[in-house]
Write a structure and sequence with these properties.
This protein has 85 residues and is mainly α. The protein is built from two helices and no strands. Helix content is 46%, strand content 0%. Belongs to the complex I NDUFA1 subunit family.
């Protein structure tokens, strides 16, 4: 039984919107992670290294091979100050 032509337009619209949303999601994830794959299953050590990378390079995904840390690295800290409850 052939497909009625009235069903083609909604089918194309739904398919196009799924493509637009998945493409937008992929673009935003790549942009957020600087073109690298997203990190999953992070433990405390990996979060500490990400914070160190943020303090060294200015981006959470950036890494440097410079043996000398920037001057600001001496005074900033990864310890967070929390408000008392």
């Amino acid at each position: 039984m052939p497909m009625p032509f009235e069903a083609i337009i909604p089918f194309v619209m739904i398919t196009a919107m799924f493509g637009v949303t998945s493409g937008g999601y992929k673009f935003m994830m790549d942009r957020r992670n600087e073109g690298k794959t997203p990190r999953t299953n992070l433990d405390d050590w990996e979060r500490a290294l990400m914070d160190r990378d943020l303090r060294l390079t200015g981006t959470a995904r950036g890494q440097t091979d410079n043996p000398v840390a920037p001057e600001a690295f001496k005074t900033n800290s990864f310890y967070r100050i929390y408000n008392r409850i």
